[in-house]
Structure of Molybdopterin molybdenumtransferase:
Amino acid sequence: MDGTDWQQARQFARIAGHPLGPTAVPLTAAIGAALATPLVALSPLPAYDAAAMDGYAIAGQGPWRIVGRVLAGDPEPPHALPGGCALEIGTGAVVPAGADSVLPYERATRQGRMVSGEIESGRHVRRRGEDCAAGTEVLPAGTVVTPAVLGLAASLGHDSLAVHRRPLVGVVITGAELRNTGLPAPGQVRDAIGPMLPGLIRAAGGDLAWTVQIADDRSTLVDALRRHDSDVLVVCGATSAGAGDHLRGALEALDARVMVRGVACRPGHPQLLARLPGGRFVVGLPGNPFAALVATLTLLAPLLGRLAGRAAPAAVTAPLAGPVATHSRLTRLVPVVRIGSAVLPVGHDRPGSLWGAASADALAVVPPGWDGAEVELLPLSSVESLTPATALAAA
Ligand SMILES: Nc1nc2c(c(=O)[nH]1)N[C@H]1C(S)=C(S)[C@@H](COP(=O)(O)OP(=O)(O)OC[C@H]3O[C@@H](n4cnc5c(N)ncnc54)[C@H](O)[C@@H]3O)O[C@H]1N2
Ligand code: MOO
């Protein structure tokens, strides 16, 4: 049995849940969350006619008589500027009524209280609302709040934002053979999935709530899956059919509804998506670390993105150059680097090795029976995934 088609499995994960409840949070706390409502301009941008250069606001034809000075932060000049007059003005200051342009210092010739120079009508004034009018929807719901979104929201007068709650993820790492430090002895391996997951979870829109490491024991796994302090439970390394692989049995014991039981892809075939009776999701990642990464990008990231209320990312495609072993029934996930507008496989892509993925810009999605058409890319690194996890707690 090959399992669910790769594209279909990702789509199942994408539609398995609903965005978590909207909540209003102060601006700076919204970073990384998705907007629950469109971002609306509470004021026009700019909010007033503002000087775009330091110089002189002038009215009518020159030479002009300088009648005062207005700087950024000063209130609006109380009177309209009469023709033939100029106000010395700072960038960002309110341009008085009656002024039709700003003459920059470097274009101006000043003699005592008089100034002259070549002007172009309307130049160097940022008109009220020229970027957007009050009430304009500037960003749709589902937009991820980046630093630029925060700055824009502040420009538009917001003190808080309505965002979707970020899903909390609990991670259960299984395997009696796993070590967390030092050189592994024969029969032991360093846990390579634990260090990889916080950044992947964060980049996908979730927050790591806790991690536990357990031996291969069904009742311990069932106990871990009963924890209610997360929205999504990730189980690593118990997906297969071996005597030490207990995820399927544990899900049966808990009466879980299994939505994806294996995916027709290499690597990552034994991955799994299920829902527990209380509503929490379970994602099973295969123990082989590269297979775990593939499963994270196939099932976990789309699920978290949806729960976080993020709009589905637009597919990025590129021509795939270089030799790729295709499969007639299975999708292959191949680490690639960008070379110009194409991508090239980097090799080192055995299920147990992260070398290829660590050297790559993306995983190329090579469909069954690939005919040489452009392939979809799953990006591998984002600055967001490099920020430290907010809550990494061993339980
Ligand atoms: N009879 C079958 N055997 C296997 C099948 C199958 O279909 N039938 N599938 C193979 C594939 S494909 C994979 S992938 C693995 C998945 O196995 P599990 O998810 O049950 O994981 P384990 O058996 O515990 O471990 C597999 C492998 O990965 C190492 N591992 C586990 N966890 C980690 C970790 N956190 N960091 C680094 N390495 C880890 C573990 O030591 C094993 O070498 O099953 C195949 N077998
Ligand atoms: O597909 Mo396994 O997931 O080859 O490593």
